[in-house]
Amino acid sequence: MTRRRLPRPSDVLPLIGMPDRTLTSLQRRLERCASVWDVRAMARRRAPKAVFDYVDGAAMSETSLRRSRDAFRRVEFTPRVMRNVADVDTRVEVLGRSSELPFIFAPTGFTRMMHTEGEPAVARVAADKGIPYGLSTLGTTSIEDLAATSPDTRRWFQLYVNRDRTEPEELMRRADATGYDTLILTVDTAVGGIRRREVRNGLTIPPQLTLGTMAEMALHPRWWFDVLTTEPLGFASLTSTGGTVGDLLTRVFDPGVTGDDITWIRENWSGRVMVKGIQSVDDARLAAQLGVDAIVLSNHGGRQVDMGNAPLELLPDVMSAVGERVEVYIDGGIMSGTDVVAALAFGARGVLVGRAYLYGLMAGGEDGVRRVADILEKEVRTTMQLIGARSLDEVRGTEVRLRTS
After folding, report:
1. Radius of gyration for the alpha carbons in the chain, expressed in angstroms and rounded
2. How far is CA 190 from CA 124, 152, 246, 259, in A?
3. Which of 79, 196, 333, 384 is positioned for an S-S bond with 69, CB 3.0–4.6 A?
């Protein structure tokens, strides 16, 4: 028979969990996020619907985005056991320099709309993690300001080509002069994709005060207070605004960009050149023939062409075709460290992540970006240990396949 007694204070007090007083309440909420998906859910609560949908949405039926994510769900590892994985090495050489982790913070447009801390917050986390960060032509922090506020970050610059070539030439000159070492040429934006969420939400660049947005103020006063009490939202490297982002891309950027423009870029840029937006083996071969340093297999996060292919599915064929001649990276659909490891197992040098850290930025500014980076890092390390890979070279030798059902 069980004997019962009244609990003593000395029995109960050790069981009472006390909050970590060194963390803010926001940081404690972020700590309870166990995955990037949890951070996404927190971002959805904290940001206005139009802002969240700008990040979360994709082109038309959003099939390309779903395919990218679904491809990672079909990955099947064959783990190796009885290996000493007490220590794993996550370092990788990325375009001539060591990166502490195999993921890169991708360039994203209009970043201060997600949180007023914007690009500098993302760059600071990148510096702390020892990884590169790409500033977009559509960024909301200037080339020089990011360099001044984030001098320890390895900075890349992403270029869209305007119809007026003097503007991109000036951007390349400024980035070159302020220590950006890699140019990311995005080639999948002949015109802007049709993003239905932005049309339905009436999201324009910059955001306009309509009856709908004023109603959103009541639901998200903190976001609106930040926006209205800081520098006005606008592009730092682009003078044209108005309409949706898709409208802007179609109106401003040159649909006539071809492989011949690589020569023009080499004449105006002294660093490495990465071409982003490759979606076929033939275009991967063309980029390699043009002598670029790296390519990114990318469907622009599903935000351009609808019903496109999944970069992960394309990766093995591209590696067979050009993997010995250029560094191959992928982006699109990456929501976990296991996704990162899967891409490497299929041969990628590394991955670019954009949406994932933007969810963090919306959820909690720099603290949110840091939480996403911490989650990805832990998941990369844990997945490596569980499949028996002590280094990223061993990850690339891991037996892996895409299930067909």
Report:
1. 22
2. 32, 34, 11, 13
3. 333
Tell me which DSSP letter residue 353 carries: E
At residue 155, the 3 state secondary structure works out as strand
Overall residue count recorded for the chain in this entry: 405
Residue 324 DSSP label: T
Active-site positions? Answer: 300
Cα four-point dihedral sign 226, 227, 228, 233 = positive
Specify the CATH class of 35-397 in words: alpha beta
Cβ–Cβ under 8 Å, residues 353 and 334: yes
In the chain, domain spans: 35-397
- The structure's pTM equals 0.93
Q: Mean of the per-residue pLDDT values for the chain?
A: 92
Residues (pLDDT < 50) of the chain are none
pLDDT of residue 211: 60
| Helix, strand, coil percentages for the chain (3-state, nearest 5) | 45, 15, 40
Residue 296 contacts residue 350 (beta carbons within 8 Å): no
Torsional class of 335: left (φ above 0), alpha (ψ -120 to 50), beta (otherwise): alpha
